[in-house]
User: Fold these one by one.
Assistant:
Number 1:
Amino acid sequence: MTTTPNSAATHRHGSPEGLDPTRWVRLHGDALFGYAMLRVRDREIAEDLVQDCLMGAYEARHRFTGEAAERTWLVGILKHKIIDHLRKRSRQKSAEAQSETFAEDVHFDRKGHWTGRFVRWNQDPGKVIEDQEFQAVLASCIESLPDKLATTFILREIDGIESQEVCTILGITSTNMWARIHRARLSLRRCLESKWFSK
Amino acid sequence: MIEFFKLLNAKCEDHARLISLSMDESLSFSQRSAVKLHLLYCRACRKFRRDAKLMREALRLGRDKTSDFPKSSTSSLSPNAAESIAASIEARMSNDQ
């Protein structure tokens, strides 16, 4: 990893108090990359987005107020870069087919009844979510979702983007969006059940 | 009314879809009534609704607490990419001096 010998000098050149761009990659590189990877699912694109984010952050360094932590501020910039990327990508693609077919359903039998056994989730969501091990399981369950389901689910359920906006970003109909979110929810639940709640 | 009678015969698969949808959109009166009725006797769908809400709550709490939520433990920037990004930042900074 590269370090710079003259970071003190660069501070004189106008980086606001509390920001140290020379340490961004070392301190936040992996976190930003993981954030982008989960959402765009392509190493090369994720790397480009991290680069765009940090260069953009450098240009916008005077707007950093110190109200949020450095990491939070950088993630906010990255989030915008990711949305721009997804929007551009959906514009380039020809319009999505009106109806999407999904892989064969494992959640219901041929009669439309639930398959699988019940696993009780008697854990407090507030406690479980602070567990680093649970977060790792959650991330790996999201990673195991098909790309389209994961991206749609994350935008809506984690990033909290309004549903109409999600449709615009991804260039899909609301029917397709709800179908994707529902499929993602079913799969995520099954995955968490087998990797976490049944332990 | 026809929709309601159709929904009375709906399977868990269809009710699950409506339960998911109801977490964001408002259902029609027929849909709402049919789901309510179904939930009275279907334990599996009740559990799905409970789990889906719990997942949502956990995800919201998570993103409010951690900016880069959920933390992925597997992905890290390749050494090459890390080095070249750090170098571009430094080049940009020295440009300013």
Note: Chain B touches chain A through 57 residues (CB under 8 Å).
Number 2:
Amino acid sequence: MGSPFLDRLRRLGVAPDGRLAAAGAPAPRPSVAVAAPAAEGGAPPVAGLEREGPSWVLTRRVSIYTRHGAAPLNPIDGLPTWAAAASRDPRFHDIPLEAWRFVDTETTSLHGGAGVWVFLVGIGRYVDGEFVVRQHLLAGPHLESDFLDAVRREIEDGRALVSFHGKSFDAPRIDDRFRLQGLEAVCRGRPHLDLIHPVKRHARNLWGDVRLRTVEERWLGFHREDDLPGAECPAQYFAWQRGGRHRLAEVFLHNHLDIVSLAALARRLLPVYGGAADIGCPVAAGMDRYEGGDPLGGLALMRAARPDVRVHRPLWVRACRAALAAGDLDLGRRLFRQVEADHPLDTGVAALRRRIDRLTARISQVPTRRQLAKERPKPHT
Amino acid sequence: MSLDAFLDALKTDRSLSDNVVAWHVAPGRNGSFAPFPDGVPSALRDVLARRGIARLYSHQAETCVHASAGRDTLIVTPTASGKSLSYNLPVLSSMLTEDADRRPTALYLFPTKALSQDQVAELHGLASELGDAIGCHTYDGDTPPDERRIARDRCDILVTNPYMLHVGILPNHARWVSFFRRLRWIVVDELHHYKGVFGSSVANVFRRLVRIARHHGGSPTFIACSATIHEPAAHFRRLTGRNPVVVDRNGAPAAERHHVFYNPPVMVPALGIRARAVDHVRKLTRRLMEQDVPSIVFGRSRSRVEVVTKYLRDAAAELGMPESKVATYRGGYLPALRREIEQGLRGGAIRMVAATNALELGVDIGALDAVVMMGYPGTIASYFQQAGRAGRRSGLSLSLLVGTSVPLDQFILTHPERVLAGVSESPVINPDNPVLLAQHVKCAAFELPFRRGDGFGDSPDAAELLRWLASEGGVLLERGDKYHWMADAYPAQDVSLDFVDPDSFIVLDTKDDTSLGMVARSDAATTIHEHAIYQHQGEQYHVEKLDWDGRRAYATRAAVDWYTDAETETKVAVLTEDERVETVAAIEGRGDVHVTTLATVFKRIRFYTHETLDSGNIALPPEELDTTAMWFALSEELVMRARLREGTRAGAVPGIAHLLRGLAPIFVRCSPADVRGFGEFEHDHFERPVIMLMDSVRGGVGFAETFFAKRRELVLAARDALAKCPCELGCPSCIGLNRGGRESKEAAGVVLDLLAAWSGTVRTASEETWEARS
């Protein structure tokens, strides 16, 4: 190549991607398609993708009367209240379903850091009997500020976010991109129902993992075929950016299905917070309500719990304590029997057993003077 | 005073005084003081007044004025001169005079985590007393996640180290926007510590840091502190790319200090073998204990320190002192134990401490009267840092250097003026080492896109590198007028600040599979080949098996009275001649070389007697290294004059390489492992005898350039050292053992004489023809 500096680099074993080969060994040359001209002028990489100002958007509409796998999408009353319980964020009470924004992103790496692009942001919402998913594509790294503008409009048009693992992944990534462009963050501080947390509380003991794929199979009856694995998405974007062959359409589909699954999951799981679902765990839901500021509703839900659920110990112990503190010894005993059956040797459970024994003994005792005093009608003054 | 009695003995007792080769008295000095500059708010003055600081040393005030005016400032003063206040003053002043939301921020960098701890304690104290909610946070590998978040959101002073900055903070600068936007101060302590690969890497980290600060609107000023080194401003410039104001008039008072250099006597004149330093240290420390002088003994390795500790304890027992008066002070001690030892020293419960060199920096163990160094600590900066341990209170203090027989120690003992002038070797760095540059440009591109035509610090090659990474590398994408990162990776994770080549072997104990240590790949073939004796903390381990591809060696503890020594064959191919000066004596030059080292055989050698028991073959792949070198290719006239072809006189060529390498640390701040010497009588490239000094790092970190520039001094120093070496047959202090004995030592002297005498004479055309005719 004739440049003394590059010759020296090669001799020192530096590969063109900057990696270091073992000393002395010739650096392998990666096979990379030669960069094509910028994408903005060319044909859309995915059928149906449209220009909206400087931004690329793909819009798909799903009727709310169709089913996603076996799960319905049609909205029902009560979702905002239940979302408030599930997210433990009371602001959800006042946010109608139409103002929720179901969000999922695709990024160029799972590592994080300033060099990771958010290249696809899909946002779903309920509008006029349809669930509409709009997917914004970053047409090129130099066009990011336009892309972020479009994303901001989309998010600020709603009042809350719904995601799966979005509180610690998608939202900070999106906000990082805004900050890097010198703009205000858009997700931070917004009401955000990250469904991974209730799913963990409801199902951690039932399944080996709490991935969205597992949720789809177990609760939604939705099975993906030929789905592009998430780990292969960055490579498709790079290939398109460099003018090579790509499967970006599959990335769009993958992202779209994630978002529809989000809506279906919210629709399917949240009713458990009203005692009206056949999935999920009423004790978990009850504790969300109990600890989220609605103790009576929470206890009522817990009383409806089936006795045959496998028990997540810390949650159950907390629930049991809550029941005892509220004076519901009956519920306390029932919850305790389950946790004891599953975790007979646990020290926390043993402590709980002593507490229940103490309370039981106290109740069967002759009432104390103070208890009698409480029950005696107060003299008129 | 008891130290006086010891000094008297050192002067008058012939068994000691005969070995004293230099005695220098540095007179005491009064402090030079200055009032607080105008910009220092009264709140800060009050807090300092409460700590008994009513006025400043002149250099503290001077630093404050320069830095507050936005000038990059470099403080060059000795240990214990109040450096941390010099930088804390302008930083805290600026913070107190701005509203909280516009308050400037400061990044404090210490080369390692341990060094920062005492400084942070002081800073925390000041910040909390000021009570103005100045958030001071440490952010390193031990910081728990919750505190990290708090640090990111509410940090005014961030204390961290280059490693964390490189791998944690810069790649995630989006989370630190508010910090970088307000960044006004970058404080770099222990500047002289940034040398070699580490320094070269950190220079690149600074290039990245300034780029990011600028992007967010910050415009930081550097304040750095350094021990007294040669050309400190030049080092600052190479490291940061900026020209500093240098503050080097020390205003701190100092007590009278005696520097005594002590050389144990020669026992075997033919081989130049001297009495062991440790035996003389034992003798001297016993005298100190008799006089009850609070002292510290520094040793170069942990095992030596352990030996000395044993001697000290024995001496204490003989003198009827409680053993608890003797303490060891090693790396890895917890703060509580450190405080306990400090307390003991101050209160007089502890009178003697033995410590490794690792503790010379940044750790305050209190005030002592005498420092004994068992062996020269390697650099002048270290010498003064260790000497600074004594005499912090007042009155008289002693720094006593007991030499060992390595070339450097002997050179220093015969040239005490080099040390006592107090100016340390310059650290050498090369931020533009191509391998490091490529790696850090990658990291920088990940952090922020490069605009076409953007530079990277003052690197001349950045533009070309970026084009290459984009066109062939497939990690950057050129769009608009920028290069954007476009790859699924986190490059900082793969880039080490300490090694160009992070490839190394792990040595495992066969007994329980625990790790004994790491060995760089370049040393593996000679130190952990099968049947090698691997030395670990003074114990011998027999290498049972070496898994080359798996980068593992398995070793078993073995109580044997022999060690192994591998022989290698080295080939050096000269690839480029970047500079070439032809004199009557030699072709002097420097450039790129390719080095192939093949370990061939190993010998089992008995301890003490050094007899060879037997030998075996090593069958391992050769080690290849591309690096930079400087050389002398000796002319035919010189070969003739020194009669190098006769007898064993050719041994002078590798012998001089050995000597030059041993003396290298006099001229630059480096350890012997950073430099390799090579001498070959018939070298293919020049068809002449060649003496070379090579950088041992892939791509080089600047040693070759520096040695080439200082080659004249290097030759003179070597000539001097050889002439003063009392051995007859060649010894480790000069041309090494087994290099041909008396003849080659004599020849080496002639070669060095001629190199020194003729090298000024640049060869002209007429002389060329003269050579051709003859």
Note: The radius of gyration of chain B is 28 Å.
